[in-house]
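Below sits the subject:

***
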Amino acid sequence: MEINQIEFNKKIGNILRNARKASGYTCADVAGMLTKMGFPCKTAAVNSWENGRTSVGSIQLLMLCKLYNIHDIYSTFILSDEEDTLNEEGLSKLEDYRKLLISSGLYKKTPDNIVELPIRKEVPMYLMAVSAGTGEFLDDDNHDMVPIPEVLPKGVYPDDIDFSVRIHGESMEPKFHDHQAIWVTRDTNLRDGDIGIFYLNGDAFCKVFHKTSTGISLVSLNIAYKPISVNESDEFRIFGKVLM
């Protein structure tokens, strides 16, 4: 059966709104609690989820269920409407399935004082290092999925990270070292002075973005390396902004 994403978002949003109100929280309260739990969130995002304008992320949904004391996620969000459409045979099979889940022991409820941590987000790490020197190609299909580390630089959050690459070379010393993994967000609106990952004529670079009235250049932090000028005839694009 084809799922209408808009209707599904509205259904999930209505359930979340009712659960929030039953718990006595405002949208601002929820946004603040999610932020304290390590998942930065704004009040507008909570409103957007509840109105069905956007889909709530899987990790955020688990955190909301924790805040609202929703223990049976499947029944709350999936069976709330469909269960009424089952005949006696269907209800019997549903009860058998429920007993099977209980007997397996895999879905046993944990005590209220134990918080189950969500699965750590994984992002692509490209196997071809980006050059901090002369440039190497960033192959979009050649990557591994790696978990985001638990400890990140101050101000960097897991949801900000879209992919990772390793530095090759020494032109971004002393900030970044040869073989160091760096984390990147797919933000192409860089300001002068931002460090980004760039594509230039078949190669990928990690450089400082320098833009003036006369044009764009890619600058190294290591003064031993000369800036790379970007000309109008060059094939150039921005892969993303390095998070620090």
Remarks:
- DSSP finds seven helices and ten strands in the chain.
- The CA atoms of residues 126 and 165 lie 5 Å apart.
